[in-house]
Specification:
single chain; alpha/beta; Rossmann fold; Alpha-Beta Plaits; six-stranded mixed beta sheet; four-stranded antiparallel beta sheet; 14 strands; elongated; binds adenosine-5'-triphosphate; membrane; ATP-binding; MetN_ABC_transporter-like
């Protein structure tokens, strides 16, 4: 025996090393020998480990390479170079017959659900089971179990056109889980849904992860999705992963400009110049941003310091968020008082919480 149970546990379910995917350049100029790029590098030298049992989000703007990355992981396309290992199997160079086996161990859900319109819900769920050669009795049992799991036990004989978007995605999830895959790939799974339905579907995905132990890779451009379900997030730009880590870390201290823009869609950082100018028309005094982090100083302690120095304050921008059970937030305060008093108060505040004066 060369591998210990502990060694197996440490092995990621998905492991990408130096993965690049290029396509021939498609602009007419290129084909005629013009000056456009000879190749489009959709995924560029990507390393990524996804541990078994985790929810990994991949975010990026349109064209960043997210969907291409997913097609490499689910063995729909070969990488141009690098290593793609899924559940211990190196996909690079694998014959089509083996690739088909690998795909059976991976579930997929899509933005547009991709249900078979000519089949009832039951028929849609039976489809992957038939392909996998599951017998009729076992199909019955499994489909009934799946419908209960996704909360649609009474929709077995309904056709997709009579379902709401949220119900369709529940069927999509049930279908993806039919063959009990270890890995579920969700490509913009909630982007076509309204906010309430999005939350319901995200709750279901969390249950899939917690109750069934399914590892999930969720491609999205919505940071709300990342905040709600993911353990870790990787940010893609121009085919590369430019930043990655636990969701709390990336949200509370984003390093790259693209990441800051994404995080800024759900978490206020500090007012930009325009917002600051507008705030100054309504509030007097000096503006400071305080960065509260989990386990650090509490807001009430900071407010007590200001009070003790006789500095009046007003909360003018920002908020406190909860991510993965931990709180953090950025609050901008307008401080009113004599300069010397404000300086003394700020010196004390700075000692306990990162503080930045906005001028
Ligand atoms: N089959 C292909 N042939 C040529 N170029 C491709 C192909 N697939 C993707 N690309 C290019 O690769 C780049 C990354 O595309 P990809 O679809 O992976 O990005 P994305 O982040 O998923 O964006 P979106 O959210 O819009 O799908 C783009 O420039 C795209 O035009």
């Amino acid at each position: 025996m060369t591998s210990s149970p502990a060694g197996d546990a440490a092995e990621p379910l998905v492991r990408l090393r130096g993965v690049t995917k290029s396509y021939p350049g498609s602009s007419p100029g290129v084909r005629r020998g013009g000056t456009g790029p000879a190749v489009v590098t959709a995924v560029d030298d990507v390393d990524l480990d996804v541990a078994a049992g985790e929810i990994q989000a991949i975010v990026g703007y349109s064209g960043a390479g997210k969907s291409t990355l997913v097609r490499l992981v689910n063995a729909l396309e070969p990488a141009t170079s690098g290593s793609v290992v899924v559940d211990g199997v190196e996909l690079t160079g694998l014959p089509e017959r083996r690739l088909r086996q690998v795909r059976l161990g991976i579930g997929m859900i899509f933005q547009q659900f991709n249900l078979l319109e000519s089949r009832s819900v039951w028929g849609n769920l039976a489809y992957p089971l038939q392909i996998a050669g599951v017998g009729k009795a076992e199909q019955q049992r499994r489909i009934s179990e799946l419908l209960h799991f996704v909360g649609l036990p009474d929709k077995a004989h309904t056709y997709p056109r009579h379902l709401s978007g949220g119900q369709k995605q529940r069927v999509g999830i049930a279908r993806a889980l039919a063959t009990s895959p270890k890995l579920l790939l969700a490509d913009e799974a909630t982007s076509a849904l309204d906010p309430d339905t999005t939350q319901e579907v995200l709750e279901l995905l969390k249950r899939v992860n917690r109750e069934l132990g399914t590892t999930i890779i969720a491609i999205t451009h919505e940071m709300d999705v990342v905040r709600t379900i993911a353990d870790r997030v990787a940010v893609m730009e121009k085919g590369r992963i430019i930043e990655s880590g636990p969701v709390y870390d990336v949200f509370s201290a984003p390093r790259e400009a693209v990441t800051r823009r994404f995080v800024g869609t759900v978490v206020d950082d500090e007012p930009d110049e325009v917002a600051l100018e507008e705030l100054r028309t309504r509030h007097t005094g000096r503006f400071v941003k305080l960065a509260f982090r989990d386990g650090g100083v509490r807001q009430s302690e900071v407010f007590a310091v200001l009070h003790r120095h006789g500095v009046a304050f007003e909360l003018v921008y920002g908020g406190i968020e909860e991510i993965q059970g931990a709180t953090f937030g950025n609050l901008t305060l307008a401080l009113d008082g004599q300069d010397a008093l404000v300086d003394a108060a700020l010196a004390e505040v700075r000692a306990v919480v990162p503080t930045k004066e906005l001028r």
